[in-house]
Amino acid sequence: MIAPSHTTKEYQALDAAHHIHAFLDQKALNETGALVIAKGQGLNLWDTDGKRYLDGMSGLWCTALGYGRADLNAAASRQLQELPYYNLFFHTTHPRVIELSELLFSLLPKHYSHAIYTNSGSEANEVLIRTVRRYWQILGKPQKKVMIGRQNGYHGSTLGSAALGGMGFMHEMGGMLPDFAHIGEPYYFAEGGDLSEEEFGLKAARELETKILELGEENVAAFVAEPFQGAGGMIFPPASYWPEIQRICRQYDVLLCADEVIGGFGRTGEWFAHQHFGFEPDTLTIAKGLTSGYIPMGGLVLSARMAEVLVQQGGVFAHGLTYAGHPVAAAVAIANLTALRDEKIIETVKFDTGPYLQKLLRETFAEHPLIGEIQGVGLVAALQFAEDKATRKHFANENDIAWHCRTVGFDEGLIIRSTLGRMIMAPALVASHAELDELVEKTRRAVDRSARELNLL
Ligand code: PXG
Q: 0.70 cut: is pTM over it?
């Protein structure tokens, strides 16, 4: 145990003095002080006052194996001793990154062949934007450069990845970039109207066709989306959505790019979320679960068809990051993927813990007067607050209700996420039945307390 150098109050004062936290009003936070998390083991976290929390969010959708894995620690430590740094610039490489790719491509569907590693999901999407445009340049179609994303999609916080994402309040901070466009999200509960889910899925997908025709197919490089939307509300599209999106992309020669940063590495019970939804993207953006978040690493995975063009006809690839394919990150990723594979963790999510969590959530909340919808598969789920379930009527202040529920959850010793009017959970993939029981029970307490404290019933 590392001895703390400060009391909680002192840590909070120093944190307030030196940090601007992500996606929060720092002035408001400074009035209460940040929660200082000091230790993790399995699915449990402890703050500096010794209070325990069940981590229902795998950190930020990262810690697939939970906290405190000795094998990941040992892999990092061995690599730090042997070769703490080298790179893939110019003509050099190193064994760990090669071994990582050998393993990664043994787990991926066979039509993927190349990876460009990064340190994060945002960077991986930056690389995506440049790589996709380069691909079309090489093929003699340099005007094909518009990237189409979705409203409320999240692809990162750097300038390009934020432009690709569809968060208006992010675009407003620092500006939007040219050659990005957005279509609506397949959020049936909010926008389905009188349509069936299947009809709505087709309608939402056909917004892409309309947008491509509006922009001109000769100008559109790619459509980029999360197989299920994460930060923008954990939204699962209707089953009709992805096949139609794929048909449209193929018809108009638009690349189909899946952002697998949170869906990848087992969350849905498949290695990759696009496999759950049954479509074949040209590229995959990966991060988070690649290393269980123990060390930063992301990447862009390319289909063999795209890589062939870039390698055989592209000449110099004018891109590089000092830390891409970092040996220590690669060593941790190898240990992480090996554990996910050899301990059959993803099969367990698919056949055991995933169905267990999904059933328990439905038993607990299907009849709950405040919950209008339960979505999810494997170890990811969302609960939608609703004023009237039958008419899918949202609370006018659903954001505030969900945020209150999140705060109450923390008070109950549960780390849970809120976005818009939804509560989201994505526990570590190694969660036991007992831990899932605790997750659902604490969520129920948080929802019920919110109902009472906000006079919702
Ligand atoms: N794509 C997706 C789909 C993501 O969810 C990124 C890219 C960017 O990755 P980096 O590593 O640059 O952060 C993300 C990140 C949340 C939450 O609370 C989600 C993310 C980050 C922080 C919070 O839902 N996703």
A: yes
